[in-house]
Amino acid sequence: MPGVFWTRVRRGFSDYGDRLWSYESAVMMALAIVVGLGAGFGIALFRRALDTLFQATVGGIGQTLPLAILILPAVGGLLTAAWLRVAGREGETGLGVSGIMEAVGLHGGRIGLRGSVARIIGAILTVGLGGSAGPEDPSVQIGATIGSQVGLRLRLSEARVKTLVGCGAAAGISAAFNAPITGVFFAIEIILGEFAGASLGWVVLASVAGAVASQSVLGSAPAFVIPAYELRTPAELLLYMALGVLAAPVAVAYIFLLDRIEAWFEKWQAPHWLKPAVGGLAVGVLAFFGSTAIMGPGYAGIGQVLQGGNLNAAFLFLLVALKLVATPLTIGSGGQGGLFAPSLFLGAMLGAGFGVLAHSVFGSAIAPSPAYSLVGMGAVLAGAIRAPITGLMLPFEMTQDYHIILPLMFAVVISTVMAQLFQHESVYTLKLSQRGINLRARGDVNLMRTIQVSEAMTPLEELTVMRKDDPLGVLTEAFETTMHHGFIVLDEHDEFYGVVTLADVERMLTQKRMVKTIGEITTTNATTVYPDETLDDALRSFGAMDVGRIPVVERRNPKRVLGMVRRADIISAYSRALLDKQEFEHRHERLRLEALARTELMEIRLDDDSRAAQKRIKDLQLPEDSVVVAIRRGSQTIVPRGNSQLHVGDLLIILCKPALRAQIQEIFHRASKTD
Questions:
Q1: pLDDT value for 635
Q2: Could you say which DSSP state residue 671 is in?
Q3: What pTM value is reported for the model?
Q4: Does domain 19-218 have CATH number 3.30.980.10?
Q5: What is the pLDDT of residue 589?
Q6: CA–CA distance from 249 to each of 244, 317, 609 (Å)?
Q7: At what angle do helices 158-177 and 197-218 cross, to 10 degrees?
Q8: How confident is the model at residue 584 (pLDDT cuts 50, 70, 90)?
Q9: Other C-beta atoms within 10 Å of 309: how many?
Q10: Please, how many CA atoms are within 13 Å of residue 464, restricted to the half-sphere of its CB?
Q11: Contact 293/326 with Cβ under 8 angstroms?
Q12: Per-residue pLDDT reduced to its tens digit, 454-487
């Protein structure tokens, strides 16, 4: 009897579990909270470890032995390189947020646990020993990895895995700054890239859970203590606009130097372990002869200027210049850490220096320099990461003061727009774009928003065009010879008059009207589209008017016809774009595979006189570090075996070490006369 009882209990719980899992919203809410709590506690431990190491080295050894400042970042670079070698991640720069964006955009939110752990520990070593980087990006990596692993282990759909990655990222920023609203907008603007009703609710839950968990360990004190702010006069908004103008080139310079310095270290023919040490040594020199404020995330320096300290404009602008170089040296040389906190440091010092100069001119008529420092933080951050809502919400959430909103809006918007004009990419998307990865158009539906009508339309010169004064017989003959169901009609000045279709002819016959010219039955109020509109816009016109073709007219002169777009044109353009997208994803997956395995994919076509033709793969004596991964034969893709026989015309895809390329090419080289 007891056995029967427990069997029924287990069955009851199983049935209840099945019913629970059928309620997707309830399950996702629970998982979002779990991910948020896990991220919050994980980030709290990460910050404790990093802060403890930083205080012991830079704050302890560096204060006792000032000369140690010169070598501490170099030691951090060496230890990071050694750790990454042990973890199998040697040579990686560790731009975590970029990798998360790529995972969500192209890989269904799959984030590897091993690589994430390697980068997080590497960040503790790099930043904890004085490297000029921040803890926020690794914090996002912690949350996103937890979200991805939860989704993957539970075998959730790709869309749900992505959502949990966004939940983890939101919790990461929320826990780092005690700013749950900012965490939500960061996840939406940077990681997920779009607003979605249900997903937004789950992201909010995770962000709140992350803040609660972090506060239970680190306390509920705000990230920065900020004095009360007051906008003295509306005219002061002009000064904040000027600050936004200055923030844009600083953000652009930050992006540019990150790219150039990283490119230089990549080209430098030196061992991977040496590069982070050299970058760290350069940071140590800048800190020793400049200021130790540029070491680590720079939170102490930010807190000081927000409290009204360091009121020397020249010194504050020097800190901006030093940080602009120190962070690219740290990250570009192979150190681990984030780019978020350095942009806040740059904005805080720029704003404080600007505020000091403005206050020396206008005196007490304007707000003190800490107010400008706070606005500068949001402006440079928004310009660097191209997330204006995040740049707006973070300072606002830290101050809890509505008075800061107007100055922030002015500065953040101006900085973002101007930075976009100077540099199209952000600190997170630049390296992705250089590898041919564009994450702006996410999903097949968005493909319609990437294609303009001009790319899909049939030009006017390729169309059969009617004249309004032509006799009706011309139209009847055109219907019969072209098999088209509608034509553009022009007037005597070759300007757009309307559209005539079979439906117009049928209506004429039904009404038994006596008609002589085409113009008498032409629809003159026909819907038109412009060539610079997207196919997504054109589709709305098709649906609203229930038509099969729409004339394309010039925007400046709607009487001038440029062509016509038909439903078939849209389908054809969409198919081409979809094929291009699939080709892009295939190419990117190939690049990703080569990067992970430190190999490359070769493609070799077997000609008539190739040595390998008619041989089996096992007889080719390929090098040990190479393998034939696929054979394309006509329209077929064959998974190769050792006994697979090769034929003339086969395209072989071979995975190999780069150093083996010449040797493999020799094996498949054309046979000589003596072969």
A1: 66
A2: P
A3: 0.66
A4: no
A5: 58
A6: 9, 14, 59
A7: 40
A8: low
A9: 13
A10: 16
A11: no
A12: 888 889 888 888 998 888 888 888 888 888 888 9
Domains 234-434 and 452-573 fall in the same CATH topology: no
**What pLDDT shows up at residue 18?**
46
What's the pLDDT score for residue 405?
82
The DSSP output letter for 672 is P
Q: Report d(CA 442, CA 163) in Å as an integer.
A: 14
pLDDT score for 29: 87
Tokens of 508: 């004429």
Residues of the chain with pLDDT > 90: what percent?
33
| Strands of the 465-467 sheet, one edge to the other | 465-467, 486-490, 496-501
Q: Please, are residues 244 and 413 in contact by the beta-carbon 8 Å criterion?
A: yes
Q: Does domain 452-573 have CATH number 3.40.50.720?
A: no
Place of tokens 């404020």: 293
Element (H, E) at 515: none
Which residues touch 19 (CB under 8 Å, ≥6 apart)? none
User: Rounded to an integer, what distance in angstroms lies between the CA atom of residue 656 and that of residue 586?
Assistant: 18
Q: In the structure, what pLDDT confidence band is assigned to residue 155 with cuts at 50, 70 and 90?
A: confident
Question: What is the greatest pairwise CA distance in the chain?
Answer: 104
Residue 127 has pLDDT above 90, yes or no: yes
Specify the CATH superfamily of domain 599-675.
Answer: Regulator of K+ conductance, C-terminal domain (3.30.70.1450)
Q: 249-286, pLDDT tens digit by residue?
A: 999 999 999 999 998 998 888 888 899 999 999 999 99
Question: What tokens does 185 get?
Answer: 């907008």
Give the residue from 431, 414, 446, 652 showing the smallest Cα distance to 536: 446
Token couple for 223: 């990230």
d(CA 143, CA 599): 30
Instruction: Give the pLDDT band (50/70/90) at residue 363.
Output: confident
Sheet arrangement for strand 636-638: 600-605, 651-656, 626-633, 636-638
Q: Average pLDDT, stretch 47-53? A: 93
Q: What are phi and psi of 194, to 5 degrees?
A: -160, 155
Q: What is the Cα–Cα distance from 345 to 324, expressed in whole angstroms? A: 10
Per-residue pLDDT averaged across 642-658, rounded?
84
CB neighbours of residue 583 within 10 Å: 10
Decide the pairing of beta strands 549-553 and 561-566: antiparallel
Q: What single string gives the DSSP state of each residue in 645-656? A: BP-TT-EEEEEE
Domain range 234-434, CATH architecture: Orthogonal Bundle (1.10)
Domain boundaries, the chain: 19-218, 234-434, 452-573, 599-675
**Closest Cα partner for 286 from 76, 74, 61?**
74
Measuring CA to CA, how many Å separate 615 from each of 49, 408, 607? 59, 70, 13
Report the alpha-carbon distance of residue 110 to residue 161 in Å, rounded.
Answer: 8
Residue 498, pLDDT above cutoff 50: yes
Q: What are phi and psi of 442, to 5 degrees?
A: -105, 120
The three-state secondary structure class of 528 is coil
CA–centroid distance for 492 within its chain:
52
**What count of other Cβ atoms lies within 10 Å of the Cβ of residue 527?**
15
Query: pLDDT confidence of 160, banded at 50, 70, 90?
Result: confident
